[in-house]
Design goal:
The protein has 139 residues and is mainly alpha-helical. The chain has one domain (2-138): Orthogonal Bundle (Helix Hairpins). The protein contains two helices and no strands. α1 (2-55) packs antiparallel against α2. The chain is rod-shaped and about 115 Å long. The relative contact order is 0.13.
Length: 139
């Protein structure tokens, strides 16, 4: 009876790990989506800065000043996006590490569960042998 409760406990632990792992995988998917968006924005900023740099040679002084401010804002945004990409990379590594830990915990629980199952089977076989022996002696 005690071993069956232990088996249930291990089953519950496995379900818990599976849910944690799925949550981590969903989080990883969200991080990768954000990373793709940031990379797209970063490429677009690069393109705009390149185009803007080419136009600077053709404009007057007043336009140059306002254009320079715009370029500075784009550079600032590019830095923000770069920082965000770095943060997302770190988050991705943390989530992947958590998934690996979860897999390792799940493997440990599976081994313990199999050990308990084996013990339950051995106990049942011993009881059957004992019952068979008692039945033969009674005849």
């Amino acid at each position: 009876m005690h071993k069956l409760k232990e088996l249930k406990k291990y089953n519950i632990l496995q379900v818990k790990e599976k849910i944690k792992r799925q949550k981590s995988i969903n989080e990883l998917s969200q991080i990768q989506s954000d990373e793709a968006k940031c990379q797209t924005i970063n490429k677009e900023l690069d393109r705009l800065l390149s185009e803007n740099h080419a136009l600077i040679e053709e404009i007057g002084v007043q336009s140059f000043v306002s254009n320079r401010r715009l370029m500075q804002k784009m550079f600032d945004q590019k830095e923000v996006i770069s920082n965000r990409l770095e943060f997302l990379d770190n988050e991705k590594l943390a989530v992947l590490a958590e998934v690996k830990k979860s897999n390792a915990r799940d493997e440990i629980v599976e081994r313990k569960k199999n050990k308990v199952k084996r013990q339950v089977r051995e106990t049942l076989l011993k009881k059957q042998d004992e019952n068979l022996g008692v039945t033969k002696r009674g005849q």
